[in-house]
Every structure is written in structure tokens, then in C-alpha cells.
Design goal:
9-stranded mixed β-sheet, oxidoreductase, Probable malate:quinone oxidoreductase, 8-stranded mixed β-sheet, alpha+beta, L-malate dehydrogenase (quinone) activity, flavoprotein, 31% helix, 505 residues
Length: 505
């Protein structure tokens, strides 16, 4: 590590990672590959890794690559479709696949079929206005090489061929349209996360502690961080000292960022949103659907609530989910406390939080409506995508908890951000990840950005540059602007990850 990180005082670890989710796992593996002698301690308040947002049942989207998620391509006031965010996410997902390919090729994770599989990604809409929008989206996206393989149709028979269930029982005269990307994937981030941590634990100078909660953290005069930890099983408390701290605790990141008291963390707030799935229990129905089919979100809906009929592989078994249905809870974590939200309100963030609330009344109205839904109401929403659905074939499953970022804004006072935000100290000694979607799918790019902020001097060295380019061959290049490189990269990663010309079986 650079001189900046070679602090004066004695430390227990070079790096402390808080939270055992996909973000901490990704950062831990990256750092250990870049600097093998690094000492790392990982603390998780639950008894298993990836039990919150990274878990397969809790994760609102698997394999986000912007192929089918319509909320990443909003229609502007002039009628054109904005694709900038979709292009960025698609490119970031290709970065993730390169990193995972490296892990597979080096034997650092298990067989790729345990965490990634090929599954088509579809967008599906009905009604004249929505069909016009989807066609404009298709025309705009296919100008970019990342989306050149996208297919589009307004032919009901073709849609039925792609996904029979969504057309069965639908009116013959209903105007529909769909896009399809055969390159789509389903990723079990829970399995991938646990794989990465299992590898980390086997390496020297890495310690992992479950059932341990971070109670406080404070910067020492020597530049190191004092982290107060409580063993939830024994009740023992101790202090650990580290040169660098990463707060990757999902919804629990905001309270810990506030405890750090760094100036850069002032003014941030959080708005918690819970979720629920309808899980199919009829094996015959599950076998008939092989796609992730995304539609348009309701007005005011948060990104995690974009409706989709979703084929997934969970614990080695094919599953079919619909949702998620949004809800509201004052908890910041699924296993959190109802006091999380009120405790997060501070003098420095109360104005942004109130302002964001006033500017998002549609979201408040939407959440109230969602909370009041009956089983029959949820079934009616499902029938828009699966007209022949019956209530007895589906059961309710609780998804994870998300905390959307609220940040200061000079014009509005506060804005609600639907994305992720890396907050880091000026000296790079601590960083926190706030927010949710698209999160896990772009974790590698997010952590590379963190390295650039907090380990800039190390990152500039020939050794780190060479290693990063070994892990991510297109590092520093744009796949969106290089058709040949995009094709070559996808061919290589598909071969290593064994997602060539396969479907969920």
C-alpha cells in the first residue's frame, strides 16, 4: 500500500470490510488479488454471508444488464428515448462478467453454472402508446453495439413463441410488442458472494467474523480508524484498528456512515422500501416459462418495483417469480429494527429528507396503495402478464429491504436518488456504499471506482495496472464504441462462464 496508507499508529488490519454482501466480497477479492499480503477483517451481523440484499430471494433483479429494464430508458418530454444509463449499465455488466470469468479461470469460485446461467431478457408492453415507446427504445438502443443483437416484434404469434404464458388467454385484438435479448443471464448473487468469501477465508491474513455487529467507528489522530465491534453471541466487545474501512452493509450503511462523522457523509438520508414476490408453486407452469419479462412501472414506483415475470435458478432449482410488490417499513434491513429510519434523521439531513418527501408524493401514494393490496389485487397485477393465472398456484414470499439515497440539492433542498452512491472521505481512508439498483450486477465497476478514489496512488502503479488488466482485459476501454472488442469480449466470457447457447433447464 502507498505511503498514504502507511499510517503511524499500530493497526490490527490493513482493511476492515463491514457487511458480508456482494460489494464487500468483490472489494475484498480485488484487493487481495492486487496486494496478496494485505490483511483483511470482515464483520457480518448475521450468521451467514449474503443473507440480506445479495440473497437470491431478496434481490430484486438478477443479471441487470439494461436489456429489458424499461426504467433505465426513460422517454423524454420531446418524445425521444434516453439510453445513456442503459448503455452504462450494460457496459458495467460486461466488466462484471470479465471479472467473474477471471475468478472461474483461476479456480477462485465454484463452477459457473452454480451462479450464472443463460436466460433470455424480454421487455413486453401492450397498448398503442407503450408499443410506440418500445419501438423507439429498440431503434435507439440498437444503434449501440452492446444492444445490436436485440430482436423486436409486434407479432403476437412471435411473442407467444418467445414466452407462451404471457400470451395465453390474451385478447386477439390487443396491440402488443416485445424485445428479446438471447444474451441475457440469470445470476445468483448469494451463491457468488459466498463463493468469493469462501476463497478469501482460505487466504493468509484474512479473518471473517459472523454474528458480529459494528457499534461505532471513529477516526484516530494518527489517521487510522477505531472500529468498535460486539460479538452478538458472547456479548464481548472489542476495538479493532484499521488503515482503511469499507462500509458495505446494504441498508445498514447509512447509520454507520453517520457514526463515522466524515464531512462528506453529511446531508445524506435514506428512504426504505420493502418488497414482496408472488412465487409460483405449480411445477407445470414453472416449466413453461424461460425468460425474464419486464414491463413498465406504475407512476411513482421505485426502480426495484418494476414488474417482471422472472425465471430464476435458486438452490439449483428453477423458480418463477412475479413482482416485486413494493411496501413500506421503517427498517433499513430485512433483519433490522423499526427504529432504523427515525434514528437516521439528523440535523444535517432533515431538510433534504423533508424536501425529497414533498417532491415524491407520487411515490408515497404508490407505496400506500401497494401496502393496502389484497391477495386478489396482487393476482390482478399478475394477470396483466399472465392472463390465465390462478391464485392457488402462487404464494407470497417476502423480498429484501432497500434504502434509496436521499442527498442534498441546492435547487430542491433534497432529492431521492434511484441508484447507488459511493461516499468516501477526502483522504480515502473510509468509504461507504449507499443505495440499491442496479447494485449487484455492477458491483465490479462500483468497486473499481472506489479503488480510484481511495487507492489512487496504488492504482497508478504498473503492478496494479497490469493485474487489473489481467482480471478485466477491457479496463480503460469502451465496449459501447468498439463493435469488434464488444463481440470478442462477450465470446470469451460466455465461453468461460459456460453461458453459450444454453437455456435454463
Amino acid at each position: 500500500m502507498t505511503k498514504k496508507k502507511k499510517t503511524v499508529g499500530k493497526t490490527d488490519a490493513d482493511v476492515i470490510l463491514i457487511g458480508a454482501g456482494i460489494m464487500s466480497a468483490t472489494l475484498g477479492v480485488l484487493l487481495k488479488q492486487l496486494e496478496p499480503n494485505l490483511s483483511i477483517e470482515i464483520y457480518e451481523r448475521l450468521d451467514i454471508a449474503a443473507a440480506e440484499s445479495s440473497d437470491a430471494w431478496n434481490n430484486a433483479g438478477t443479471g441487470h444488464s439494461a436489456f429489458c429494464e424499461l426504467n433505465y430508458t426513460p422517454e423524454k418530454k420531446d418524445g425521444t428515448v434516453e439510453i445513456k444509463k442503459a448503455v452504462q449499465i450494460a457496459e458495467h455488466f460486461e466488466v462484471s462478467k470479465q471479472f467473474w470469468s477471471y475468478l472461474v479461470s483461476k479456480g477462485l469460485v465454484s463452477e459457473p453454472c452454480n451462479f450464472i446461467r443463460n436466460i433470455p431478457h424480454m421487455s413486453f408492453v401492450w397498448g398503442k402508446k407503450n408499443v410506440e415507446y418500445l419501438k423507439k427504445r429498440y431503434d435507439a438502443l440498437t444503434q449501440c453495439d452492446l444492444f445490436s443483437d436485440m430482436q423486436y416484434t409486434e407479432d403476437a404469434e412471435q411473442v407467444k413463441n418467445w414466452a407462451p404464458l404471457i400470451m395465453d388467454g390474451r385478447k386477439n385484438n390487443e396491440k402488443v410488442a416485445a424485445t428479446k435479448m438471447d444474451l441475457g443471464t440469470d445470476v445468483n448473487f448469494g451463491t457468488l458472494t459466498r463463493d468469493m468469501f469462501n476463497n478469501l477465508k482460505e487466504q493468509s491474513n484474512v479473518s471473517m467474523y459472523f454474528n458480529h455487529e459494528i457499534r461505532d467507528l471513529k477516526k484516530n489522530k494518527d489517521g487510522n480508524w477505531i472500529v468498535k465491534v460486539k460479538d452478538l453471541e458472547s456479548g464481548d466487545k472489542r476495538k479493532r484498528v484499521a488503515k482503511f474501512v469499507f462500509i458495505g452493509a446494504g441498508g445498514g450503511s447509512l447509520p454507520l456512515l453517520e457514526k463515522s462523522d466524515i464531512p462528506e457523509g453529511k446531508g445524506f438520508g435514506g428512504f426504505p422500501v420493502s418488497g414482496q414476490w408472488l412465487k409460483c408453486t405449480n411445477e407445470e407452469i414453472i416449466k413453461k416459462h424461460h425468460a425474464k419479462v419486464y414491463g413498465k412501472a406504475a407512476v411513482g414506483a421505485p426502480p426495484m418495483s418494476v414488474p417482471h415475470l422472472d425465471t430464476r435458478m435458486i438452490n439449483g432449482k428453477q423458480a418463477l417469480l412475479f413482482g416485486p410488490y413494493a411496501g413500506f417499513s421503517t427498517k433499513f434491513l430485512k433483519n433490522g429494527s423499526f427504529l432504523d429510519l427515525p434514528k437516521s434523521i439528523k440535523f444535517n439531513n432533515i431538510r433534504p429528507m423533508i424536501s425529497a418527501g414533498l417532491h415524491n408524493l407520487d411515490l408515497t401514494k404508490y407505496l400506500i396503495e401497494q401496502v393496502r393490496q389484497s391477495p386478489e389485487d396482487r393476482l390482478e397485477a399478475l394477470k396483466e402478464y399472465l392472463p390465465t393465472a390462478k391464485l392457488e398456484d402462487w404464494e407470497l414470499e417476502y423480498a429484501g429491504q432497500r434504502v434509496q439515497v436521499i442527498k442534498k440539492d441546492e435547487k430542491q433542498g433534497g432529492v431521492l436518488e434511484f441508484g447507488t452512491e459511493v461516499v468516501s472521505a477526502a483522504d480515502g481512508s473510509i468509504a461507504a456504499l449507499l443505495g440499491a439498483s442496479p447494485g449487484a450486477s455492477t458491483a465490479v465497476s462500483i468497486m473499481l471506482d472506489l479503488l480510484n478514489r481511495c487507492f489512487a496512488e496504488d492504482l497508478a502503479t504498473e503492478e496494479w495496472q497490469a493485474k487489473i488488466k489481467e482480471m478485466i482485459p477491457t479496463y480503460g476501454k469502451s465496449l459501447a464504441q468498439d463493435a469488434a472488442l464488444c463481440k470478442e469480449t462477450r465470446n470469451k466470457t460466455s465461453k468461460v462462464l459456460k453461458i453459450e447457447n444454453t437455456v435454463v433447464a
